[in-house]
Amino acid sequence: METAVIRRAGRDDVRSLGRLGALLVQEHHDFDSRRFLAATNHTLDGYASYLASQLDEPDAVILVADAGEVIGYAYAALEGYDYMLLRGPAALLHDIIVDPAHRGRGVGRLLLNTMLSTLQSRGAPRVVLSTAEQNSGAQGCSAASASEEPWWR
Asked: CA geometry: angle at 91 spanning 122 and 87, to 5°?
């Protein structure tokens, strides 16, 4: 496993969050260009701005993987009932991404497990996450974490 410290994101991380967010947008577009937006020259700044707005939200959690630089992040939010999705209160894991140069070394799993522990400590009764059908790496990571953290299934 790569040596990375998982910590809460701060204002100094916003540019890195934007860079990784733009990468997330582009990867999803590459998975399914009819469903997902393409990254543009404004995506980095837009994503950075949005995640910066979530840093002080009481129901949001943004964690970063820091290995001397931010190499990944996870973003989740606690939400109430959603009658359109027929779902009770839950935490939604919106984003998790690791820089491609640092993948395959356990950073994503460390981010996910730390996020699950954080959400559990904040009283989340369940966690909802989804992956693109083509994203087998993320699916393997979440399946392994499911067996380690059975409370969130």
From this structure: 130
